[in-house]
């Protein structure tokens, strides 16, 4: 492995380090009430302290308008979805209660790093994709070891049928004779040339297929895949292979081989492609495929294998629920529900503007998403690799989220207008809970009712400074006995709901939670009385601090030139 670069990376996000220790919790019977558990409502007021944007699914351009997206609304009524708030609160409860990290896709990520600046990444790709040899002058040369074949849909399944092999090769090279920006011309044979656009497929008279993969500096040849081989050699594309291919959002070229294979009329024999077969750690056969001979390949280990935590049922799971899956054979509904947040008065909007280009999450950037505290760069293929932790965005001023000049806009490939609401808008919502223990309710209140100077983040554009909000809370506990043994209140003027204003108990519940966490994590001889002085909570506090903003140059996306150096992102408390 190569040594790490000593320079530090910068990003508008950072991570609360992953906790290996998980604090366990108890599953209860949700179809009864318990005398020692709590039911009620937290009535919340949410105030925007920067502009905030949560988009609708549709974009106006799809119905003939401009390329813009309106704020979330239902039939013109603007609101903040309760699901967005609930997801944010669950993440925070996972962090503060030492629960497991659950908000991730356990997928096999893709990469192509043949020419990477980092030696580890270069060698990782070459080991599976090329064979190295010496030419006549003793120079290192490389031959792809991928094979040519045809991706075909048969019934409900996808298969790759290998192409015929000639001299142990399922494809051959053809010389490029002209290569401009828009078209590539190759010499198919002595008397025939073929011209096509980058990333195009052309059937030849001998049932072979020319695959033009595009313009690359100093590229000398394209490939012709031999005609289809025997159907008996077909290779099943597993469900995991299909999902991984479809979820590779970093594939720049908009060619979807699976969609092409769905249209049998265009490619009756299957879509020409390149592939490699490999095996997982438990011996399961998998296949990678792509539209170029040096395609993006998957890591041999999924994201989930780099999340090393105790496998316990935890506090966040029992509070917010767990979806049943075949692996765990367990699932249950949550005991916390969040209503949609509706505006308190007329909403004030920002001017509709084009948002600065957003850097989409790229867990393929191992130097940022994997713990790199050792001497050598680790990747998802390493058995001891560990995910950094819960990802969070820094608070920013919220003043520079849009492009300011037409020149800035013209220099960008992606343009999307958004219509955020302004700061100082107020929304009301409720958190309803039932059968929460003292510790669980304390955890919920701990992440809802943050200390002065700390704030939450919601919505899209968090990397550009949008989405900072402050939530204030009032606690109303329900006396179940009163609610279900009385019809009317004491003076017979209204229904008896058993709800009592118990706002004075918020500090009591939060304190109980704090003492519980300290008893589980700190050494008994530790006299530290402030939970926010614990390492984990200090880093969380830095990320939630809305007043002590970091300098912009420390939390900005890196230019591509710097990004390619694979510098390491320091923990929140290591920024200087």
Describe this structure as you would to a colleague.
With 576 residues, this protein is an alpha+beta fold. Helix content is 18%, strand content 25%. Strands 2, 23, 24, 28, 29, 30 and 31 form a 7-stranded antiparallel beta sheet that branches. The chain has a 6-stranded antiparallel beta sheet with strand order 13-12-11-16-15-14, with no helix packed on it. The chain has a 5-stranded antiparallel beta sheet with strand order 17-10-9-18-19. Helix 1 crosses helix 8 (438-448) and helix 8 crosses helix 10 (506-521). Residues 60-65 have low confidence and may be disordered.
Helix-strand layout with pairing:
Elements lengths: L12 E5 L20 E11 L19 E2 L3 E2 L2 E2 L3 H15 L13 E2 L7 H11 E5 L5 E5 L2 E8 L2 E6 L8 E9 L4 E6 L2 E5 L3 E4 L5 E4 L8 E5 L9 E3 L1 H8 L10 H6 L8 E9 L5 E6 L6 E2 L16 H6 E2 L9 E2 L2 E3 L3 E2 L9 E2 L11 H4 L19 E5 L12 H5 L6 E2 L7 E11 L1 H11 L7 E2 L10 E11 L1 H6 L13 E3 L4 H16 L13 H10 L15 H4 L13
Parallel strand pairs: 3-27
Antiparallel strand pairs: 1-26, 2-28, 2-30, 4-5, 6-20, 7-8, 9-10, 9-18, 10-17, 11-12, 11-16, 12-13, 14-15, 15-16, 18-19, 21-22, 23-28, 24-28, 25-27, 29-30, 30-31
Q: Would you summarize the structure shown here?
A:
With 576 residues, the chain is an alpha+beta fold. Helices cover 18% and strands 25% of the residues.
């Amino acid at each position: 492995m190569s040594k790490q670069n000593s320079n530090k990376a910068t990003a508008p996000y950072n991570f609360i380090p992953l906790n290996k220790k998980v604090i366990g919790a108890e599953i209860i019977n949700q179809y009864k009430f318990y005398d020692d558990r709590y039911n009620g409502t937290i009535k919340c007021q949410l105030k925007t302290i920067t502009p905030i944007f949560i988009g609708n699914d549709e974009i106006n351009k799809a119905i003939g308008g401009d390329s813009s997206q309106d704020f979330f609304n239902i039939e013109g009524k603007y609101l903040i979805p309760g699901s967005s708030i609930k997801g944010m609160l669950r993440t925070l409860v996972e962090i503060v209660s030492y629960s497991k990290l659950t908000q991730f896709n356990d997928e096999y990520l893709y990469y192509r790093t043949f020419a990477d600046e980092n030696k580890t990444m270069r060698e990782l790709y070459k080991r599976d994709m090329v064979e190295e040899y010496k030419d006549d002058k003793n120079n290192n040369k490389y031959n792809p070891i991928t094979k040519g074949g045809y991706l075909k849909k048969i019934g409900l399944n996808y298969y790759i049928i290998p192409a015929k092999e000639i001299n142990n090769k399922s494809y051959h090279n053809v010389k490029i004779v002209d290569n401009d920006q828009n078209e590539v011309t190759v010499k198919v044979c002595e008397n025939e040339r073929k011209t096509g656009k980058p990333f195009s497929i052309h059937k030849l008279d001998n049932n072979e297929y020319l695959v033009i993969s595009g313009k690359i500096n100093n590229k000398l040849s394209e490939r012709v895949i031999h005609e289809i081989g025997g159907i008996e050699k077909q290779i099943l594309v597993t469900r995991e292979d299909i999902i991984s291919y479809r979820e590779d959002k970093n594939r720049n070229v908009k060619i979807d081989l699976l969609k092409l294979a769905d249209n049998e009329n265009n490619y009756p024999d299957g879509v020409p492609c390149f592939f490699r077969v490999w095996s997982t750690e438990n011996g399961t056969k998998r296949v990678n495929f792509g539209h170029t001979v040096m395609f993006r390949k998957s890591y041999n280990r999924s994201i989930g294998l780099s999340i090393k935590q105790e496998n316990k049922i935890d506090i966040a799971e029992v509070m917010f629920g767990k979806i049943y899956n075949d692996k765990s054979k367990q699932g249950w509904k949550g005991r916390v529900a969040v209503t949609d947040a509706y505006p308190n008065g007329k909403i004030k909007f920002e001017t509709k503007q084009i948002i600065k280009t957003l850097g989409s999450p790229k867990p393929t950037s191992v130097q940022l998403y994997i713990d790199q505290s050792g001497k050598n760069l680790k990747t998802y293929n390493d058995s001891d690799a560990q995910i950094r932790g819960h990802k969070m965005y820094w608070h920013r001023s919220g003043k520079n989220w849009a492009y300011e000049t037409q020149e800035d806009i013209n220099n960008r490939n992606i343009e999307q207008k958004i219509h955020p609401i302004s700061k100082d808008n107020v929304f009301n919502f409720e958190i309803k809970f039932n059968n929460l223990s003292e510790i669980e309710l304390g955890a919920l209140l701990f992440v809802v009712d943050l200390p002065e100077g700390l704030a939450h983040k919601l919505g899209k554009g968090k990397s550009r400074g949008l989405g900072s909000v402050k939530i204030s809370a009032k606690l109303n506990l329900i006396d179940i006995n009163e609610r279900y043994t009385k019809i009317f209140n004491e003076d017979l003027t209204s229904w008896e709901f058993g709800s009592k204003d118990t706002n004075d108990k918020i500090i009591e519940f939060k304190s109980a939670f704090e003492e519980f966490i300290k008893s589980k994590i700190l050494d008994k001889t530790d006299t530290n009385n402030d939970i926010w002085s614990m390492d984990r909570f200090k880093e969380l506090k830095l990320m939630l601090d809305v007043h002590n903003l970091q300098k912009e140059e420390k939390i900005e996306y890196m230019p591509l030139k710097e990004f390619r150096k694979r510098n390491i992102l320091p923990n929140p408390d290591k920024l200087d």
